[in-house]
Amino acid sequence: MTLRSEVAKHLFKEDIADNFKRRITGGFWNTDASYPYKPHIGVDYGANIGEELIAYDDYEVIGINTGNSDYGQHVYLYFPKIDKTGHYAHMDTISVSKGQKGNARDVIGTSGNTGKSSGPHLHFGFANGKVTNTNKGSEGNPWINFETYVYAPIGQESLVRQDGKFTVTVEEGLNVRKEPSINSERVSGLSNGQSVIYDNYIDSEGYRWVSWLHNGSRVYGARRTLDNKEIYGIAEFLNQEQEKPVSDIGKSWTPKNVPLKLYPQSTGGTNYGPSKTERTYKILDEANGRVQIQHKLFNAPQNKVWVNKSDGRVG
User: Fold this and answer.
1) Contact indicator for 259, 272 with CB cutoff of 8 Å
2) Which residues contact 53 (CB under 8 A, 6 or more apart)?
3) pTM over 0.85
4) Can 156-237 and 252-314 be said to share one CATH topology?
5) Which span out of 220-224, 242-246, 262-266, 278-282 was modeled with the highest average pLDDT?
6) 202 with 159: CB under 8 angstroms?
7) Neighbour tally for 245: CB within 10 Å
8) Which helix (H) or strand (E) holds 3?
9) How is domain 3-148 classified at the architecture level of CATH?
10) Greater confidence, 268 or 235?
11) Distance CA 78, CA 102 (A)
């Protein structure tokens, strides 16, 4: 599955819930000098003027243009979780401001026909890193050809099989939603003490959601936050499959003592030697009681090394 065929479900609010694949009116053109057309660093999706556009992921607004340009009214959203930038162009209205931060599926404006456009549509470009320049066809072009970028969509493809009984334990009850998002449409609710049999779970937007079929459609209820600071219900597993532990990847890790022992891999391996730095690191990976960090002060392959998790503090 590629970004090109499915991304519209995460750009247009009305496309979230169904399997409709929005019509593509213009693809990512080759940037080779011999190609007969100018480079087109994105995909055009047919749309009516005024359709609500949503953020592809948790975001920061890093660029806005409301003046005259080929792209008309357009915005650049940076998605820090995946270190990529989304470019929404030819918009009719823009409802965010530069520097604003928000969540996946927030409405950011509406589709339109502004700028150099042959008809109402959304031009969406996807770039590596934080980018506010379309940089057409230049060497080192960060804009991704959708046909070569593999996309893991939010939805059933990301569900983890687990049979269980979920019982709500919060006094105010719990919302049941159409998608695993606090911004998704509310389908129904569960009262305090009410139980439901679920068959899958998914981690999304900082929550663990249990999922089951309701009147023939898949629905979601938040069981807890991923950091376990808020618990909304109790899960009793109905088979031998155990719940996956909460990952510390992406969290901070600070050495308890120095010098710190550095290793080239997650098991065994020759100790690279001690490091005297006391800075805080971001956990890139974890396995076998060790965590991987980016140690820029040490001459190791790609500066990525492993340390014993117990030699530091997480969070």
Assistant:
1) no
2) 11, 12, 13, 88, 91, 107, 108, 109, 110, 111, 122
3) no
4) yes
5) 220-224
6) yes
7) 7
8) helix 3-6
9) Distorted Sandwich (2.70)
10) 235
11) 10
